[in-house]
Design goal:
The protein has 9 helices and 7 strands. The protein has 273 residues and is of the alpha/beta class.
């Protein structure tokens, strides 16, 4: 049998569309350094000004970014939820989130883009504890201890679905696959958002890859608000969120022996993430 020769080509793989999204609150001191460094990478940028009382919005409007202004401070979690909704509505495949206070270095954006293009994960999570950098700084006060404690408790509770274990539960320098996050039912408005996110990510079997980033703390005096500057209150709040979210997702997590009902809160020496 003679076969007619045909030109067969593999389908062209479309490059993922990527949005950079920046939550901002009173960032006048740094915004004119952060935005040009981010824009150098040629990706569209969304900045959500969460009720700033300084010139953050005015400074941001001078740069070619999409600016959303909240008339009041709605909270970090609410802004993150709005970022996911924006990325989904504009049909971006991925969104990279980073802070506007110079603790997340724009020079690392290409590393996140490279990880995205591997197309083997749903979340690329920055970790300040995955490896050491010459520029690393010591975490202020006891913030490292709360991060260490909650990271360990998340791994203990969700170990079957967070494998390998995560090393930094609270780093906001991340890349998220938009459609994966659209399937989550996130409701947290404040700094408890990462705890809720990790539980739902595990319950929805999202794949996670960590990416090492430097540990930079440029303003140790920043406030968590809502009484959370007290480390004991903050830790209790995060643990209550963890317990509540595990209970909420128990049906999807029940098949794993790694999911354990949270008991009495264990004490920790120190303060916050």
């Amino acid at each position: 049998m003679r076969l007619r020769s045909r030109s067969i080509r593999a389908p062209v793989r479309r490059a993922p569309t990527i949005l950079i999204a920046i939550p901002a609150h009173n960032e006048t001191a740094s915004i004119d350094r952060v935005l040009p460094a981010v824009l150098e990478h040629g990706l569209p940028v969304l900045l959500i000004d969460d009720g700033s009382t300084d010139q953050t919005a005015a400074r941001a409007s001078a740069w070619p970014v999409e600016l959303v202004r909240n008339s009041a401070n709605l909270g970090y979690g609410r802004v993150m939820r709005d970022i996911f909704a924006f990325a989904n509505a504009r049909a971006f495949d991925w969104v990279i989130t980073m802070d506007c206070d110079e603790q997340h270095e724009p020079r690392l954006i290409p590393a996140f883009v490279d990880a995205i293009r591997r197309d083997d994960t749903d979340v690329v999570s920055g970790s300040r504890y995955l490896r050491r950098f010459a520029s690393d700084q010591v975490a202020p006060g006891q913030r490292r201890e709360i991060n260490r404690t909650l990271t360990a408790e998340l791994n203990e509770a969700l170990g079957a679905y967070l494998s390998p274990p995560i090393t930094d539960a609270f780093c906001g320098f991340k890349a998220y696959r938009t459609d994966a996050c659209h399937a989550l039912r996130l409701t947290a408005d404040g700094y408890e958002f990462p705890i809720q996110f990790w539980v739902q990510a595990a319950a929805n079997r999202l794949k996670v890859r960590e990416l090492a980033v430097p540990r930079l703390y440029l303003d140790a005096s920043r406030s968590f608000g809502d009484g959370l500057d007290d480390p004991t209150v903050r830790l209790a709040h995060y643990r209550a969120t963890l317990a509540s979210e595990i209970e909420h997702c128990r049906g999807r997590l029940a098949s794993s022996r790694a999911v354990r009902r949270r008991g009495a809160a264990r004490p920790v020496s120190g303060a916050g993430a």
